[in-house]
Write a structure and sequence with these properties.
There is one protein chain. With 393 residues, this protein is α/β, with parallel strands linked by helices. It folds into two domains: 3-196 and 373-391, 3-Layer(aba) Sandwich (Rossmann fold), CATH 3.40.50; 207-370, Rossmann fold. Helix content is 39%, strand content 15%. The protein has helices spanning 11-25, 42-49, 64-74, 76-81, 92-117, 130-142, 175-183, 199-205, 255-265, 281-288, 300-305, 345-349, 355-370, 377-386, 388-391; strands spanning 3-7, 30-35, 56-57, 121-124, 146-149, 169-172, 191-193, 216-222, 243-249, 271-276, 291-295, 317-320, 338-339. Strands 3-2-1-4-5-6-7 form a seven-stranded parallel sheet, sandwiched between helices. The chain has a six-stranded parallel sheet with strand order 10-9-8-11-12-13, with helices on both faces.
């Protein structure tokens, strides 16, 4: 029996991989998963979000003696940093040493796991994290086909994406991302435009979040963009009756920022705090909302606008651009959103009627380019994995 082995971590990893697993299971494949012991507590997350889901835990496969020996062969580099004390060398060795110790254990563990599990093919979200990269290297050494996916929108400097096809065949959503990866030096024969695995399915399955009826629902999504909440931002909000604000925070935001947001909106009239964006609530809020206020830069922009491909009417999006480097400003090139910079929330949403005339056409074209592979990507990725080239060792 053919067997797929996947690396999964938090829910935003597995939600892109699971549709492909379902396709392969329907074709008679066996699907197994593994995760790592990390600072991100992947194991805890899997047991919380997917109770009862079996998976291989990487520490079960490592060999302490071999991992320690690998560490000792390279530890001299860390020691040499102490020879020339400076602001970095006094801190960096301890930080990197902890990560490198984990890497040695994981390197040994991945190699042994592949020899034990004997997968026909392997799948990971991408090669950019260390687990995807090490899995790819071991797949190459053991002759196992390795596939990766597009995680989100790629808008940073091209050098960030140079690693995407070193070991894997990468399946992307559209020609726009393919062009980014080609500019970054990716191998053309390792890039496949397959479309998004399951955007349409998620949208169809989402049950709108229960919110007050008779009001326009405004979805405020906060990324990890630094922002100081001033009282003036809620000016007039609690006195109006037309809109209801739903607040959600990106899962990568820091705990102090989460607490700041919760304290700022606590007890405010016309506001519902949904919390941190994990699992399925984000799609329920997307389905229930009429206007999106985005603080920063997020792939949520595409998830908000993609129903244009289904023939649905576009919904306004207002963005406060991120000041952080290598982020995307959605108000320009192309302008798919109106700018809400410097405005209170009520001022932002009152711009919404102008969105269609100023941004609607550009938004439709942008979505088409980003998702030129369509919305049935899980089936297409499964076809590639099942192809003679995909299953050959």
């Amino acid at each position: 029996m053919n067997k797929l082995l996947t690396f999964i971590g938090p829910p935003h990893h597995s939600q892109l991989i699971q549709p492909i697993e379902r396709e392969l299971l329907g074709r008679g494949w066996q699907c197994e998963r593994f995760t790592a012991d990390t600072e991100s507590c992947f194991q805890v997350g899997l047991e919380e979000y997917y109770p009862g889901l079996p998976f291989h835990w990487l520490p079960d496969y490592t060999d302490k003696g071999k991992a320690d020996a690998l560490y000792q062969r390279h530890a001299g580099w860390f020691r040499s940093l102490y020879d020339t004390p400076n602001a970095l060398s006094l801190v960096l060795p301890q930080t990197l040493d902890r990560i490198f110790t984990s890497c040695c254990r994981e390197w040994v563990g991945i190699g042994r796991m592949l020899r034990v599990v004997k997968p026909t093919a392997c799948l990971a979200l991408h090669e950019i994290n260390r687990w995807g990269r090490m899995l790819g290297a071991h797949c190459q050494m053991q002759g196992i086909p390795f596939w990766t996916l597009q995680e989100g929108l790629y808008y940073g400097d091209p050098w960030l994406y140079t690693a995407h096809t070193k070991y894997s065949h990468s399946c992307v959503w559209g020609e726009a991302t393919r062009a980014v990866l080609l500019q970054a030096g990716a191998s053309p024969d390792r890039l496949h435009v397959t479309g998004h695995p399951d955007l349409a399915a998620r949208w169809a399955a989402a049950i709108p979040y229960p919110l007050p009826e008779g009001k326009k629902v405004v979805f405020l999504f906060l990324t990890n963009t630094p922002i100081t909440f001033q009282p003036a931002m809620l000016e007039g909000w609690e006195q109006q009756e037309e809109y209801h604000l739903v607040v959600m925070i990106h899962q990568m935001a820091s705990l102090p920022f989460i607490k700041q947001v919760e304290e700022y909106f606590k007890g405010k009239k016309g506001v519902t705090m949904v919390g941190v964006g994990q699992k399925g609530d984000i799609w329920r809020v997307l389905k229930a909302s009429s206007i999106l206020l985005l603080i920063g830069c997020s792939s949520l922009t595409l998830e908000w606008l993609f129903p244009l491909l289904l023939g649905e009417k576009g919904r306004p999006i207002i963005v406060v651009p991120s000041p952080l480097p290598m982020t995307r400003n959605y108000t320009v090139n192309p302008p798919v959103a109106l700018s809400g910079e410097g405005m209170p929330f009520l001022g932002m949403v009152r711009q919404a009627p102008a969105w269609e005339a100023q941004c609607g056409g550009a938004a439709a074209q942008w979505v088409q380019e980003e998702l030129s592979g369509g919305l049935e990507g899980a089936d297409r990725v499964a076809n590639l994995i099942c192809s003679p080239a995909g299953v050959s060792r």
